[in-house]
Structures are given as C-alpha cells and as structure tokens.
Write a structure and sequence with these properties.
mainly alpha, 0% strand
Length: 143
C-alpha cells in the first residue's frame, strides 16, 4: 500500500469517523443540556402557581424534576461532552499528522518518511482505541 492509498483508506476514513462522532456527541450534549436547563428553570416558576386545587400543575412540576434527573443521568452515562472533545482531539491530531506529511514538514522532511507517518498515525489511533476501552471499563464499573 502506498502513501496515497493509506491516506485515503485509513487516515481520511478515521478523520471522517472521528469528525462525525464528535459532531453527533456535541449535538446530543448541547440539546440535552438545553432541555435540562429549560426544565430546571421552569420548576421554580411553576411552583409559584401551585395551590391546593392545582393537582395537574403539581404533576407537571414533579415531572419536570424527574426529567431533569433523567437527563443528568443520561448525560453522565453516555459521556457526550467527554466523547465530543476526545473525538475532536483525535480528528484534529490525525489532520495535523496528515498535513505535516503532505507538506514534508518536520518530522517528515527526510527520506523514507512514509513508515514514520504510518507509525505515528497508527499510534494515535491505537491511543484513542485504548482510551475508548478504558472508558467502557469505567462505565461498566460505575453500573
């Protein structure tokens, strides 16, 4: 496999995967947090209108509290913010290595730099995979 095939089949594929995963985790995190904030802010507002006759409003305020707790649990369990940052970092690190290689910048400004490029890219991917495995173990332990 030559360098252009490796870049296309491995590096670009990984960059695109990490980029997509980062984006989806960022969207999920922000949407859930906004919903959590809206629900949490609505509780004190709803409480001011509760009287003895407003059973429905009591239910709504109680449900908002449950929704806030569930969203906080989901955000903590699925670690959307941590994944977003971790995937973005991996994507940007791979892009960095790719552009250093393509422009023959250090450390790729020597002859036979392709094996060094492959080694560094695979090291970044391996590091990310190890980090992912550790996160899975932490999540299992937390359960």
């Amino acid at each position: 496999m030559d360098d252009s095939e490796y870049i296309e089949q491995r590096v670009d594929d990984q960059i695109n995967w990490y980029d997509a995963k980062s984006g989806s985790n960022q969207k999920a995190f922000k949407r859930l947090r906004v919903l959590e904030l809206l629900c949490a802010a609505s509780i004190p507002f709803g409480v001011t209108y509760i009287s003895e006759e407003t059973f429905t409003l009591k239910l709504v305020v109680g449900a908002l509290g449950v929704v806030v707790a569930v969203i906080a649990g989901v955000v903590g369990l699925y670690r959307f913010q941590e994944n977003w940052v971790q995937y973005r970092t991996a994507s940007e690190s791979l892009k960095h290595e790719k552009f250093l290689y393509l422009t023959n910048a250090a450390p790729y400004n020597q002859s036979e730099s392709y094996p060094l490029f492959v080694q560094r890219v695979e090291s970044l991917i391996s590091k990310e995979n190890s980090s992912w495995s550790q996160n899975i173990e932490v999540a299992k332990t937390a359960e």
